Amino acid sequence: MKVLASTALAALMAAGPAGPALADIKIxxxxxxxxxxxxxxxxxxxTLEMLVEEVNAAGGINGEMIELIQYDDGADPNKARTFAVRxxxxxxxxxxxxxxxxxxxxxxxxxxxxxxxxxxxxxxSISIIDPVEPYTFKTPHTDRMACQKVFxxxxxRGISKIGMISGTGGFGASMxxxxxxxxxxxxxxxxxxxxxxxxxxxxxxxxxxxxxxxxIEAVLNPGFxxxxxxxxxxxxxxxxxxxxxxxxxxxxxGFIDLAGNEAAEGVRxxxxxxxxxxxLPADDPQTEIVRAYKTAFEQKYEMPVSTFGGYAHDAFxxxxxxIEKAGSSDPEAIRDAIEETSGLVGTTGTYxxxxxxxxxxxxxxxxxxxxNNGGWTLVD
Length: 380
What we know:
Branched-chain amino acid transport system substrate-binding protein, Peripla_BP_I, Rossmann fold, Leu-bd, globular, BCAA_transport, 14 strands, amino-acid transport
């Protein structure tokens, strides 16, 4: 799929040949717009389209219009790699935003590195930016940070012994590993450790094992997609009366709808300011940004805004700011300007990159959220 947002360019052309034609700045993306991860890729793609239209309508970047070239990889790493090569070699983009999942992101990274094209990933795993690769950045918090935020909350509640039930996909497996590595830093002992596959439709046996483990005080479910919603429903059906934590991978209204309001009641997870935009304090530095994006997206698409679209929003703002700062569409200059980003406020947090940090967020960027009455509330 190829999207050309050129409203402003058409208007300039209609006005007559006032000067030499301006070149387009070609930005590429490959996202999971369809398939099992479309709940990630669809709002990401819509967000990029909307923002390109807005920037072009306002005159572009340094007077140049943006051409957005998007491909749908369906979360297939092989397709993502193929599209990355096409974007670089055939479409000649100057930067890429994409990689809805960790798997597709990791498939893209060798291609952008070899070509010297800056790439901003929208996936969660810490492996994307640790170790730092010169041309790869990302906007979502890492899975390791999610573990730390959850364990901070457990510490406050006096919880020290937990069970985990993790998805075996790339995200779930990575977050499980990170949680096991940092648990002891917070005095947390994982005394039950279960897992489920991406196509499993019932997690009752694993949850029954956890329920039967003496001393369990809470349960954490690293995972994304439909699995965590099934876990949440089964958890409720089994009558497990212990705090249930989910990952930032399901921080959307879609998770609540899929799990059901009653089953999801009281579930906690680390999320972004975007999910609680309407109740953020007026003096929160993110309030203006998240409310503006939420209003624009929901008016344009008549659907709820999501955390995942927010990741694309932040990636695009980082990229536009870098191109403006570089005063050039040269990929190397853009890469350097991204790395020099400092204090850029997004929907996910405030970004400050460096040569040693291609995420640019700290733990304060996460909000601890709890589901109450079918919606999101802030946890103190």
